[in-house]
Amino acid sequence: QMQLEESGGGSVQAGGTLRLSCAVSRFTYCMGWFRQAPGKEREGVAGMDYKGNVRYKDSVKGRFTMSQDNAKNTLYLEMNSLKPEDTGMYYCAVKGPGRYCAGGSLMVTEYDYWGQGTQVTVSS
Question: Is the pLDDT of residue 1 over 90?
């Protein structure tokens, strides 16, 4: 009964900011954010390990920040200085309970449970 639900997507101008949220029924030791643009494969944006270390996709480093609120069982992805190439459907995901990913993972195959996605559109 693992459940994930993203929210916070929308349409913004280039240079703008969005903060995505993901309510998770149960935190695990490996959690992350992914995105998928039309016609492209899903790609990892940020991945967090059990210590809170976050691995970022190179193109979002310095602009995106992944964080968690343990009290609320919620993941966040703050996206600053958004670019048109950031456009896509954003998903949160977690690896199954008791399973690890050292340093955080950006690999789709690491994750077992996924949210429904929230759309992010960045215009020029």
Answer: no
